[in-house]
Amino acid sequence: MSVNAFGDHGPQHEKLGTVLSAIASGVEDIAQLLRSGQTSGEVGTVNSFGDKQLEVDIAADDIIFNRLKQSCAVATASSEERPKEITVGGQGYAVAFDPLDGSSIVGANFSVGAIFGVWKGDKLLGRTGEEQAAAAYAVFGSRTSLIVALPDPGATTGKTVQEYTLIHQPEGSVWKLTRDNIKITEKKVFAPANLRAAAENTTYRNLISQFILENFTLRYTGGFVPDVHHILIKGGGIFLNPVSPSAPAKLRLLYECAPLAFVVEAAGGASSNGTESILQLSITSLDLRTPISIGSKEQVQKSLGCLA
Ligand code: F6P
Ligand code: MN
Predict the structure, then answer these.
(1) How far apart are CA 87 and CA 76, in angstroms?
(2) pLDDT of residue 152
(3) Which domains does the chain have, with CATH numbers?
(4) What helix, strand, coil percent values describe the chain, rounded to 5?
(5) Pocket test for ligand 1, best of 98, 104, 230 (most atoms within 8 A of CB)
(6) Which segments within 23-121 are labelled E, that is strand?
(7) Hey, how many other C-beta atoms are within 10 angstroms of the C-beta on 29?
(8) Ligand 1 neighbours (beta carbon < 6 A)
(9) How far is it between the farthest Cα atoms of the chain?
(10) How far apart, in whole angstroms, are the C-alpha atoms of residue 304 and residue 65?
(11) Closest residue by CA, ligand 1 atom 15
């Protein structure tokens, strides 16, 4: 793949294409690692959030750090596995990432993902999701897909969302643009995460009953990335992760929610923590967690009561 396959985005976004190409190369490396079949063993350590780390989490994390470093366009990087602002030596952007989202389902060979938020400058703390220059996520399923939300002054949201597919050819792999200008409208599909919260959170329980009575279709894998990806590709639906006293928020604002909210809102969908858009929330700590509802605008609006 050529270094600037993800384009030139004008002087305001100088080197953004270089950062996205580095992310794409890292995703290609992770896809290869997952396809090797040698990735189901746990190493038995925990990251600073208390999650069990798998060998594959650590390898994927190293892959992305190295690719970002090689790009020379990234000043600072931070990952769910290494939740610090780490200086990587380049200049231009700060990147936050979750190198392998879905550690609990990788053993069952479900689709897993990787998530990336890209900010101009060298800081992540104190920023908002809205300030991202671009965001991306990868889905490692029967194909490897890379979804990118980029600046596009001509689009109604000022951004465009594209899907690239990794095509394997004898002479090497290439990224092919397979969907352009992806849009989210309204669809009766729901993905109810953290359903344990519904035992105490009666508003959540009532909303689930409402979905059932309104003949919604359930699509839920237990992976944030594939569950949100389903909404994007089918053109609508809702993913929600409400909380309760004994089932608190797990999803991280910086590494998971802000980048996916950027993609979904760029496609014309919505995101909320119950009171405001996920993109308005200040990243006051690298490990800040949040309840989230994300997807079709009307559905997100209807779900606000069970998040707050
Ligand atoms: O910790 C994050 C995560 O694994 C997400 O990828 C996923 O959406 C969510 O948790 C699933 O939570 P639960 O299994 O409680 O529905
Ligand atoms: Mn994750």
Answers:
(1) 5
(2) 87
(3) 3-179 (3.30.540.10), 189-307 (3.40.190.80)
(4) 35, 30, 35
(5) 104
(6) 42-46, 52-54, 74-79, 86-87, 93-101, 112-120
(7) 17
(8) 101-102, 104, 193-195, 222-224, 227, 250-251
(9) 56
(10) 36
(11) 194
Which pLDDT does position 40 carry in this prediction? 63
pTM for this model (two decimals): 0.94
In the numeric block, the tokens 């707050």 are attached to 308
Q: What pLDDT does 43 receive? A: 55
Task: Per-residue pLDDT tens, the chain, 308 aa: give them.
Answer: 433 457 666 667 789 999 999 999 999 999 999 998 876 655 556 666 655 556 888 999 999 999 999 999 999 999 999 999 999 999 999 999 999 999 889 889 999 999 999 999 999 999 999 999 999 999 999 999 999 999 988 888 889 999 999 999 999 999 999 999 999 999 999 999 999 999 999 999 999 999 999 999 999 999 999 999 999 999 999 999 999 999 999 999 999 999 999 999 999 999 999 999 999 999 999 999 999 999 999 999 999 999 97
Distance, CA 78 to ligand 2 centroid (Å)?
A: 13
Cα–Cα dist 174/150, whole Å: 20
Mutation to probe ligand 1, out of 53, 98, 224, 243 (largest number of atoms < 8 A from CB): 224
Tokens 């990147």 label which residue? 95
What's CA 164's distance to the chain center, in Å?
15
pLDDT, position 47: 61
What are the backbone dihedrals phi and psi of residue 254, each rounded to the nearest 5 degrees, phi first?
Answer: -70, -50
Residue 224 Cα: closest atom of ligand 1 = 8
Tokens representing residue 201 in the block: 């959170």
* 3 alpha carbon – ligand 1 mean position (Å): 34
Probe ligand 1: pick from 241, 255, 287, max atoms within 8 Å of CB? Answer: 241
